[in-house]
Amino acid sequence: MPQTIRVQLLREGARVPVRATELASGFDIYACLEDGPVTVGQRPVVIPTGIAMEVPWGLDAQFRPRSGLARQGVLATFGTLDADYRGEVMITLYTVAPDITHTVNHGDRIAQLVVGQLSDAGFEEAVTLSETARGAGGHGSTGR
After folding, report:
1. What CA–CA distance (Å, rounded) separates 29 from 118?
2. In this structure, are strands 102-104 and 38-40 parallel, antiparallel, or unpaired?
3. pLDDT tens digits for 99-122?
4. What is the C-alpha separation between 113 and 93, in angstroms, rounded?
């Protein structure tokens, strides 16, 4: 049975996240702007959503860029919504080049929320690690 994420609408015009299509993995997150449009450039801009959420422990709620905006050079920073946070969800947007600006209007889809299961992992200090074919090969070590 699916777990439920509770959403509080903090002001008029705020919207509960929804899937754009039945099989979408992400839920659209909307801008909730009280003071008119906001222009986004290369400097990060924090966009309010007008919602707060209660994510049950065990779920991993992550905000990600929308592909339609990314195609235009507009990205949302990745973010995680912790189970104990109850404040307004804010999405940080920026553009990837100095000649790109983007205007965000009230109600625009600005990010997506993808929900997965958390792993209850632990850490253990080790003197050595097991050998692999890759070993310590870093960025680009497996080819293009």
Report:
1. 21
2. antiparallel
3. 999 999 999 999 999 999 998 899
4. 14
Q: Of 69, 24, 3, whose CA–CA distance to 77 is shortest?
A: 69
Residue type, 5: I
What one-character-per-residue DSSP string does 28-89 give? Answer: EEE---SS--EEE-SS-EEEEEEEEEEPPTTEEEEEE--HHHHTTTEEEPPEEE-TT--SEE
Which domains are seen in the chain, by residue range?
6-117 (2.70.40.10)
Q: How many Å apart are CA 72 and CA 84, to the nearest integer?
A: 34
As given in the structure block, the two tokens for residue 52 are 């707060």
Q: Which pLDDT tens digit goes with each residue over 19-75?
A: 999 999 999 999 999 999 999 999 999 999 999 999 999 999 999 999 999 999 999
